[in-house]
Predict the 3D structure of the following.
Amino acid sequence: MNILQYFKESFRRKKARRVTQEYPPQINSFQLEKEGKIDFANWTNPLVGQIVISQGMVDFYKNYIKKGDLVIDIGANIGDTTLPMSLAAGSTGVTLGFDPNPLVFKILELNATLNKGKVNIIPLPYAISVNEEEFFYVSEEASFGNGAISPVKESKRWKYVYPGKIKGINLKAFLEREYPAQMDKLTFIKIDTEGYDKEIIKSIPDVIEKYKPVMVAESYGKSSNEEKTELFNCIARFGYEIYYMEDFDVNAKTVRINSSQELINWKKTINILAIPIK
């Protein structure tokens, strides 16, 4: 990168942190060894890295997902985990992708239209909450590349608030109303909600207890030790083994986490994989 290009990119990133605007999608194609040609809409937001879809990503999910399964991606963002999940579940399965961020949801919707005959992605613009209610969507930067739901506008951490409110729904009630015939095939839930993951898990105890899906959640680096302990315990009590996950890739390293103290020792944000004990 020459010096002129460097300053242009630096200016774009600074602008994205301070000015809210929409960034268009860019569709890229990837040739996978088993799935063939796969299209994916990346987001051209300069604060967001470009996603490469690989066979290793799809094979990771194939370890836990079969064709025809019901799988759920909570905090789907633009669909970088939703698409590989749906390739594992196939067009006969149902992949629900939830994301309340209005800007990334437009890219998720586009990704749901690609790869016909190979996937079945249902994009849903909702947050998952205990009760049906409304929230503000807040972020640390103006482009809303990531963020969280908040019951109030004012926050010491979140500087930017998206205009208008977003809807929160109870996941169990939604599934029982919209997908009752598929619930027996629920095998996988991924959650990535900026520290809210444990609240989502706590909101669906009956679903976890009955169907025992494999779960991926995020241990948020900025969470307190008490919050990390609660996350570990609220998963482990259902009879799950918990692992650190280096990446969403079949070849990535995993490390068993045996106690909440071991989870606390991870200071950075990490993904944890929870597998039901048979």
Notes: The longest helix spans residues 3-18. The first strand starts at residue 25 and ends at 32.
